[in-house]
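Run folding on both entries below.
>entry_1
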Amino acid sequence: MREDRFFVGRLVARAFQQYWRLTRGVYLDVEACVIDEADRVLMMRKEAGGPWSLPASTVRNGENLETALRRLMRDVAGIEVNSRPELRGFYTESPDRQTGLYVVRNWQQLSAPANLETSFFAPAALPAGVTKPATERISRLVEGRTISET
C-alpha cells in the first residue's frame, strides 16, 4: 500500500514538472564582449542618456547561440564576426533567463550601428551606469578568464 502511494506521488510530481516546464520556459540570451586592438570593449546604449551595456539579444527559435550572436552583431552593431567567437560561459541574472557570453576579437565594421550609440571603453574606465556584475564579467573576459573564475 505504501509503495502505491509513493508511486502515485511520483507520477503526480512528474506531471507537474512537465507542466511547469512547458508553461514557464527559460529564455536564452546571447551577449558579446567585442574587444578592439587596444583591448577596449564595445558598449552600446539605445537612447541618449540611457544605460550602457554589452550588445545582447534573445536567441530566436531555430537559432543556436553563435548564429544569434552573428545576427546581433551584423544587424544591431554593423559588425561582421570574421572567425569563430569564443564562448566563455553562461550566467543568469533572473530565474527565467540564461545568457551565453562570447568574446569577439576578430571582427570588422561593415556599417554604422542601427539606432544605437556605440563606443569603445577601457575596462578600467567603463562609463557610469554599468552594473557591478557586468563590470566584473568584462574585466574577467579581457584578462582571458571565464566569467566564473575569480
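>entry_2
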Amino acid sequence: MTRVIRISISLLMFFLFSLATMVHAQPTNPNCKDIAKELMRADIRTNKIQEQMIRAIESVYEDTAVYFKKQQKPNKKLKRLDRYNRGLNILVLNLEQQVVKMKGLIEKAKKQGNGCQKMVRNISDQVNATQEIHAKMVRSLGDKNSLEHEFRALIENINYKAK
C-alpha cells in the first residue's frame, strides 16, 4: 500500500514539474498595455519618492518650508544643502533607479513596433526631463555651496516637468 502511494505521489510530482516547466518556457511577449501599466507603476513610485524628498527636506530645514509657503525672496541666511544627508542621498539613488527602469520600458516599447510608438513619443520626453532633473540633483549634492531651497525647487520640478 505504501509503495503505491509513493509511486503515485512521485508520478504526480513529475507531471506537476513538467507542467510548470512547460508553462515557464512559453515566451512571453509583453504588449503595449502591459508596458503602459509598468510605466504607470514606475511613475507612481517616482511621485512617492518626490513626496519623501519633500518630507526629508522639511524635517531638516524648517526655514525653507516657510519660504515656499510665503513665496518670499530667499535671503542669505537659508541653510546650505547637507550633502551628507543619508536619507536624501538614498532617495536620489531611488529616483535614478526609477528613471533607468522607465528607460528600459521605453526601449521595450520601441521594440514592439508601430503600435506603441505614440506612447513612446508621449512618455520619452517626460522620462528625459526627469533624468535631467536627477542629474542636476546629483550635481547640487556634490556642490558644497548649493542652497537647500534650490534643491527643493528641483524636487518640485520633477512633477512639473513630468506633466
